[in-house]
Amino acid sequence: MSLFAVADCNNFYCSCERVFHPELNGRPVVVLSNNDGCLIARSEEAKKLGLKMGDPFFQVRDLLERERVAVFSSNYTLYGSMSGRVMSLLSQYTPSLDVYSIDEAFLDLSNMGDSQHMKRYGEQIAHRVHKATGIPISVGIAPTKTLAKMGSKFAKKYKGYHGCCLIDTPERRQKALELFPVEDVWGIGRRIARQLAYYNITTAADFARQKESWVRSKFSVTTVRTWKELNGESCIVLDDMSQKKSICTSRSFAGQGISDFGILEEAVANFASRCASKLRHQRSCCQGVTVFAHTSPFREDVPSHFIQQSVQLSVPTQDTAEIIKTAVGMLRENFPAQESTSAPALFKKAGVIIWNITSARVVQQDLFDTIDRTKQKALLEAIDEINRRNGHDTVRIATQGTNVRFGLQNAYLSHQYTTNIDDVIVAKIK
DNA sequence: TCTGGGGTCCTAGGACCC
DNA sequence: TCTGGGGTCCTAGGACCC
Prior knowledge:
The protein is α+β, with helices and mostly antiparallel strands. The termini are far apart. The protein has 14 helices and 12 strands. The mean pLDDT is 93.
């Protein structure tokens, strides 16, 4: 009999900031996206003020000030490091840990004894993680991942669970399903929830009660799997997520946007370089490269422009220079010619995606290849090593430029408490 | 004025082949 | 006027996730 736990960090980014600002406990806190664009994390107090996920910062700024909400720019170095601490602790409680996202992981608890003891086990996990890292978490335990996710939401909502909700018996499952809105089920998004509402299906129990053939006829196999999981049949398998099948690096640009080709080219070169670096980090090569750039989708007063082009390379590569050259080449081909009469396109966001990813060990050679791949590999390894020691982009390709003119806006950035020696908190003893 | 970033899987439809 | 049938592969777009 299968049994899974999911451990979910509560309002993770906000909790990370609070670890180093304990005075913010009990107060509303929000964390902003890149460029301080919109809200991507809210503490419970902030949620109660009516602040929504994705709210544009400039629209809620007055409210934030009025309610004295603590505001932070996103600090991914800090969150990544705190996530590592949490995951490392969780791994001690299971033979098999699946890290699902920066703030969430599944623990396989199958064949680890009577499920009745698991309630206590889950509480221990929650308690230990909180005590050791300062991050509060919610644990859900059930025979399927979808039910476990449901459990973690109950554990988060009701303090009485002491951090862990166990949904093991059919009776408990039925009760939980009845109390749970179908749109909150893992795997049911806005679109499907709307269709279900049309059939008067509003709770998870309503959905679970339907016939499998009906679900199959109306939705895709993914939704059928969700339905099975709600009925206690475990069928969602997470594959290894450490080896990405596509890698994307993209940014929005602060302010008006970019109209100058040279600056956009430099940005794209840097995105391509980051992609190549992530690719080598997971010891892979890619054969597909996509570049895109577009104007703001929110502005109707200026001309909109979308650039997107992909290409398949003849030989899989992990070379920074080659990926930059490919991406920048496609950008140049598609960049709109400036007409003196009209205003230039203001590009607000751009990015590079690499795909068709394979292991670096088995690269299919091309008969007509003109590059000395062995020599190139040695060069890349040397560059990665220098950048690893001295900070990334110490050595870079000329197209990447020397100054970051499209720099991020992050006015409310906290320190690198856990990864930079100069930022480590100093304790004062009185 | 100011609206994130990075992924996965599924499906429909077109291209192409015999 | 009538214009096969079946299969595979690829891709774009949609839906979902955090």
